[in-house]
Amino acid sequence: MNASTFARRALAPLALLLIASAAQAQGDNPYGVGAVWEKSDAVTKVVLFTLVAMSAGSWYVIITKLLQQARLGVQSRAAQRDFWSAGTVKAGAEKLSPKSPYRYIAEASLEATQRHHGLRAKVDFADWVDLSLHRATERVQRQLSTGLSLLATVGSTSPFVGLLGTVWGIYHALTAIGVAGQASIDKVAGPVGEALIMTAIGLFVAVPAVLGYNALLRRNALVLDDVRDFSGELHSVLLGSAHEEPASAEQPAGLSPALA
């Protein structure tokens, strides 16, 4: 089989789909989505708009979160490459991107060492640093989780929204059949089939949302493992630096030379 034959066979389903869509657009298909829209009332149109909005929102979250996770992967490699080779924590943080969560965690740890005085000094330094790093890591985790609740909501509710449109459509179809006084197959199949399209649309919206939610959740776990490893290593560095020589007069109180 040559390349041209393979291409024709591979593109045949797409061509058939385009032909069917064109036929529906021209009104040749009386039972398609276009017919549902033309014959529907306000409730059905609201359901369709809701499903379209759900689909758009879920795809927006999926794409933006994938891009965010890709950026975090690049920032993680940059932190491993540049941060640990620096002479001090401050110098290592300055090598990282201002939007990097690793820089945020490093700067939060530096701020914690500077604020370890007064009542905070009654807390053991190791526990204080661990608390500060934990809070910074939790903020990064919450940022990564932003939008996932939308995917979970869309995945769990969109089939029911589509089912609402189906029930409403079947109700109107049966009412029309009762008024007409005829129950032949051509009178029943068309309206009921149009109503079932709403359930199909709800499932088309729900499936990508559920798959995207599960995939993003797994990828978030991998990203957070790198963030927690960085925090743990930084915690060890901070504790080791606390036992070095006292800070000079130009440095903030509580900040050792290895951190400044």
Description of the structure:
- With 260 residues, the chain is an all-alpha fold.
- The chain folds into two domains: 1-29, no CATH class; 31-242, no CATH class.
- The protein contains eight helices and no strands.
- It has helices at residues 3-25, 33-39, 42-83, 89-94, 101-114, 125-145, 148-180, 185-242.
- Helix 3 runs antiparallel to helix 7 (148-180), helix 3 packs parallel to helix 8 (185-242) and helix 6 packs antiparallel against helix 8.
- The longest helix has 58 residues, at 185-242.
- The chain is rod-shaped.
- It starts with a helix and ends in an 18-residue tail after the last helix.
- Residues 9-27 and 245-260 have low confidence and may be disordered.
Oligomeric composition of the shown chains: single chain
Task: Give the N-terminus to C-terminus distance in angstroms.
Answer: 68 Å
Helix content: over 70%
The chain-level structural class is mainly alpha
Portion of residues in beta strands equals under 5%
User: Over the alpha carbons, how many angstroms does the gyration radius reach?
Assistant: 29 Å
- Contiguous low-pLDDT stretches (5 residues minimum) are 9-27, 245-260
Largest sheet: none
The beta-strand count equals 0
- How do the SSEs run, as a string of H and E? HHHHHHHH
Question: What is the helix tally?
Answer: 8
User: What is the arithmetic mean of pLDDT?
Assistant: 76
Shape: rod-shaped
How many discrete structural domains? 2
